[in-house]
Amino acid sequence: MRREAETGISTLLDLGVKLLFTGGRHRKLVIIDRSILWEGSLNALSQNSSCEVMRRIESETLAKQMIGFTGLRKFV
């Protein structure tokens, strides 16, 4: 699965997507355009058949709240 994750990351970077990797934290979050928030127990880039879940929320307010809560504001 590592190779698939690396390929997916490489593809995203080639498309111009800005990725921020935060080491030492066990969070499963994806924030897109500061307005779409994916959160849950699923590893977003490394699972394709799992019983874990992720929730997609379209809300600029909630995405910004999560950016503030996680301390990511300094990076975006």
What does this structure look like?
This protein has 76 residues and is of the alpha+beta class. The protein has one domain. The chain has two helices and three strands; from the N terminus they run αβββα. It has a three-stranded antiparallel sheet with strand order 1-2-3, covered by helices on one side. The longest helix is centred in the first third of the chain and has 13 residues. The model has no long low-confidence stretch (mean pLDDT 84).
What can be said about this structure in brief?
The protein is α+β, with helices and mostly antiparallel strands and 76 residues long.
Topology of helices and strands:
Layout: H1 2-14, E1 29-32, E2 36-40, E3 54-58, H2 60-70
Antiparallel strand pairs: 1-2, 2-3
Strand content: 15-25%
Order of helices and strands: HEEEH
**End-to-end span in angstroms?**
29 Å
Q: Which structural class best describes the helix and strand composition?
A: alpha+beta
- Total of DSSP H or I helical runs spanning 4+ residues: 2
Order of strands in the sheet with most strands: 1-2-3
Quaternary state reads single chain
Question: What is the overall pLDDT average?
Answer: 84
Radius of gyration: 13 Å
Q: Using DSSP, what is the number of strands?
A: 3
Name the shape in a single word. globular
Keywords:
76 residues; alpha+beta; three-stranded antiparallel sheet; 18% strand
